[in-house]
């Protein structure tokens, strides 16, 4: 019997691809898209130039991968908070508090890559990605409102689409205020007030309990 002694093609990668993308995130955070060079990415990601191009592509391709990975991770965490088994008010409050806590997390850059860096990139694919991400976030909140209608927590005429957009707008606003240094304590307080505002179905209506 003849043994197959053929060697596998190529050389095994000597770096963690996921870890390299996480480090690239910090590079883009620190310098923005326009300020980053390939040399910055080579140094920051810990990947040689030939491997960087072969595995990740050019700067634009790397940024798109970073953006998608960042959005997926943050979106999963936000969805878990919003859809946890609790009352509607607690869910919306937790969603807005998550925006504050992630934007003011110790040891990381203030704000959010999707809100504070990506919108400044003049690229149609980046813009489409941000538009889809924004619509997806609003749809997630709208779905939570519809579940609350089914559960009898809010009336059937509650303006779910409008208030879902309002919730995501509040989340972006809180994130931007974190970027300019507003204290976390202040932002958390404002998140609670914002929760009460969006849960008013009509002027004069009582805020749902949760």
Concise synopsis of the structure shown:
The chain is built from nine helices and no strands. The protein is mainly alpha-helical. The chain has a domain at 70-198: Tetracycline Repressor, domain 2.
Your description of this structure?
The chain has 210 residues and is mainly α. The chain has a domain at 70-198: Orthogonal Bundle (Tetracycline Repressor, domain 2). Helices cover 67% and strands 0% of the residues. The chain has helices at residues 17-35, 38-45, 49-55, 59-82, 88-103, 113-117, 124-150, 160-179, 184-198. Helix 1 (17-35) runs antiparallel to helix 2 (38-45). The longest helix is centred in the middle third of the chain and has 27 residues, at 124-150. The chain is elongated. It starts with 16 loop residues before the first helix and ends in a 12-residue tail after the last helix. Mean pLDDT is 88; it is low at 1-12 and 203-207. It comes from Bradyrhizobium amphicarpaeae. Residues 37-56 bind DNA.
The second-level CATH architecture of the domain at 70-198 is Orthogonal Bundle
- According to CATH, what is the topology of the domain at 70-198? Tetracycline Repressor, domain 2
Count of alpha and pi helical runs: 9
CATH class of the domain at 70-198: Mainly Alpha
Which term fits the overall shape? elongated
Q: Biggest sheet: strands, sense, closure?
A: none
Helix fraction by DSSP (H/I, runs of at least 4): 55-70%
Q: Termini separation (Å)?
A: 71 Å
For the record, what is the CATH homologous superfamily label of the domain at 70-198?
Tetracycline Repressor, domain 2
Number of strands: 0
| H/E topology pattern | HHHHHHHHH
Round the mean pLDDT to the nearest integer and report it: 88
Strand coverage percent: under 5%
Low-confidence stretches: 1-12, 203-207
Determine Rg (CA atoms, Å): 21 Å
Supply the helix-strand structural class: mainly alpha
Protein name: TetR/AcrR family transcriptional regulator
GO molecular function: DNA binding
DNA-binding region: 37-56
Domain HTH tetR-type: 14-74
